[in-house]
Amino acid sequence: MAFSKKEEFTKEDIWLADIAKSLSHPARISILKILAQKKVCMCGDIVELLPLAQATVSQHLKELKRVGLIEGEIEGPKVCYCLNNDAIEKAKNELNKLFKKVCC
Fold this sequence. Notes:
The protein is α+β, with helices and mostly antiparallel strands.
């Protein structure tokens, strides 16, 4: 029987690995770029800019929201998304620290 040994790692390392996993799809990278450019965007607007079905885009948005990189606010029948700048800054800083430690 397999079991996870995540508890053997620091909370920071687990968090950073989760962030990295959430960034592991090009659609999610594109979504972050769209939100950075537009500041705020409805789900339907994001769908129009990507070569993916609405349901697929929604799943990618859900993952980015789960890790806290974006926020979504319900406005009537639609959801308006924006970057969570604090989480983006934290992820940027932690990734920079990691790469400084492992750099040649």
